Amino acid sequence: QGRMWAYTVGFTVLPHVGGFLGWFMNRKEIPVWYEKLKKPSWCPSRKIFPVAWTVLYTGMGYASYLIWNDLGGCSSKALVPLGLYGAQLALNWAWPPFFFGAHNMKLALIDILCLDGLAIGTMCSWYRINKVAALLLVPYLGWLAMATCLTIRIWKDNPEQKPGKSE
User: Fold this and answer.
1) pLDDT, tens digit, 9 for 90 and up, residues 82-122
2) Domains in the chain, start-ordered, CATH in brackets?
3) What single-letter DSSP state applies at residue 101?
4) Alpha-carbon distance 23 to 50, whole Å?
5) Exposed/middle/buried for residue 141 (C-beta within 10 Å: 0-12, 13-18, 19+)
6) What confidence tens digit (pLDDT) does each residue in 25-60 have?
7) How far apart are the C-alpha atoms of 56 and 33, rounded to whole Å?
8) Where are the transmembrane segments (predicted)?
């Protein structure tokens, strides 16, 4: 019983680790670089992002625990559903260094498009196992849709400067 509590907390906290590291590593680029980018009028306020990601990471982390628990831990049955989850989480964590760290909007766009596909695949694979876990990913998919559209708009509206070119 006590051990299950530790697993629940561990799975729930795990997504926050990469999210926090991504923020921490790139936090200085937000006021310096990101604020200067042309963004659409529907871009959420900077203050919304940490709140949204806290809620989304908590939901997806707990959902991953439900799947792990329903499949009896790291069994062969868990390989695909938890593998998809791990892959999409890795792409999720990779986006901030691509976008904020490297200022590579094209690579960030490729990353988030692949992330979208993996997140949808994760939800579909989870739906047969645990409908609640799958439904916990719905807000995440909604936020990813907005983030993808935002990445596309920022990429289109802010042509990347070529090194050595002066305006």
Assistant:
1) 999 999 999 999 999 999 989 999 999 999 999 999 999 99
2) 1-38+45-157 (1.20.1260.100)
3) I
4) 9
5) middle
6) 777 777 778 889 999 999 999 889 889 999 999 999
7) 25
8) 6-26, 47-66, 78-95, 107-129, 135-155
